[in-house]
Amino acid sequence: MTVLIERARNALGPELAGPLAAFVAVMVVFGFAAPNFFSRATFGSVAFQLPELGLLTLAMLLPILTGGLNLAITFTANMAGLTLAWVLQSQGGVDAGIGAFVLGSVLAIAVGALSGLIMGLVIAYTKAHPILVSLSMMIFLRGLGEFLTRGGDVSGIPGFFAAIGYGSIFGIPVPLLIFIACVLIWHVLLTRMKLGFNTYMIGSNVEATRYSGINTRKVQVLVYTLSGAMCAVAGIIMLARFNSVRVGHGESYLLITVLACFLGGVNPFGGFGRVIPVFVALVVLQLLSSGLNLMGASQHLATAVWGILMITVMILRWLAGRLKFLNTNRG
Predict the structure, then answer these.
(1) How far is residue 204's CA from residue 288's CA, in Å, rounded to a whole number?
(2) pLDDT (tens digit, 9 = 90+) per residue, 209-259?
(3) Which of the two residues, 177 and 41, has the higher pLDDT score?
(4) Which of these, 17, 225, 242, 315, has the minimum number of CB atoms within 10 Å of its CB?
(5) Residue 289 Cα to chain centre, angstroms
(6) Pick from 189, 289, 276, 282: which is nearest to 230 by CA?
(7) Nearest alpha carbon to residue 275 among 125, 70, 60
(8) Please, what is the angle between helix 174-192 and helix 194-204, to 10°?
(9) 44 and 214 in contact (C-beta within 8 Å)?
(10) Sign of CA dihedral 162, 168, 169, 173
(11) Are 299 and 291 contacting, i.e. CB atoms less than 8 angstroms apart?
(12) Parallel, antiparallel, or unpaired for β 172-173 and 244-245?
């Protein structure tokens, strides 16, 4: 049995084996415990809920791979959504046209990228800790957004834009298609492009990477800029789904994105991790949430379960590392 497990792990890769095992466990447990778990409604719900959390997780992934963190992802997304909403309102609100949507989307992505650019510059050139820098950006964006909106919602978008949030193509939700496209872009970036290689290098050892001739400052700035831009894409999707946006929307997503990265095999200290296992981990978390809802559990219990899951993942990863160390010494 041990040999079979080891062969499966080698075939799938160390990062993907864990999320797939969790996927099978969730399917088996809720298949027996939750009524109607294997239904079109359940998987349809997962397909609609996955994209916004998934896009924010992609935004979190790149900074973590460099050994950093972006605590401002949700507020960056909301500020980008607010930017788009304001442009649409200024051009007629529900009567705004395609041109207003395109302009607003470009400006929204620019706002997200600018947020990431500022964080990247501060982190790269002052060597300030990413947690402190992103926390400062989070506080700034929250305060700025509440000042501009006075703590209220901004709503009133054209019908064609709302269709992006709830429409489907060949039965597949449009937000899910956008998310899958972004997953593929991130996968190519990390596996086929120089920026991806340099990102892993910085996460492994930033000083050694610098001495090898790689411009680590440029890479860090690009990583956080791309993270901010991905946050903006998430903000656009959230605006389309909820027909409104406010500064504090989706605050609970922050820790879940970190959990998804860790469950997907990403090293919390950087230098190791892949996109596809993180994608599988996101599906597991959404299935877990849906299963608990079908069992009548509250959302608060689901949040508690996610916290327990994060602790469990960290313990299991420590045990796996310990066993690997002992086996190496025996050899």
Answers:
(1) 32
(2) 999 999 999 999 999 999 999 999 999 999 998 888 888 888 888 988 998
(3) 177
(4) 315
(5) 16
(6) 189
(7) 60
(8) 70
(9) no
(10) positive
(11) no
(12) unpaired
For residue 35, give the amino acid letter: P
| Residue type present at position 286 | Q
CA dist 171 and 30 (Å) reads 25
d(Cα 85, Cα 153) in Å, to the nearest integer? 10
Tell me the backbone φ, ψ of residue 70, rounded to 5 degrees.
Answer: -125, 95
Tell me the two tokens of residue 155: 């709503």
pLDDT band at 105 (very low <50, low <70, confident <90, very high): very high
Alpha carbon of residue 233 to chain centroid: 11
Measured CA to CA, the distance from residue 218 to residue 71 in angstroms comes to: 21
Residue by residue, DSSP assigns 62-96 as HHHHTT---TTHHHHHHHHHHHHHHHHHHTTGGG-
* Residue keyed to tokens 């597949």: 172
Say yes or no to pLDDT of 140 above 90: yes
Both ends of the chain: CA-CA distance in Å?
A: 21
Question: Stretch 272-299: mean pLDDT, rounded?
Answer: 86
Q: Which of 61, 134, 107 is nearest to 282 (CA)?
A: 61
Cα 139–chain centre separation: 20
Helix, strand, coil % (nearest 5) of the chain?
80, 0, 20
pLDDT: is 231 or 317 the higher one?
231
d(CA 247, CA 148): 10
For strand 244-245 and strand 154-155, is the pairing parallel, antiparallel, or unpaired? antiparallel
Residue type, 143: G
Global pTM? 0.89
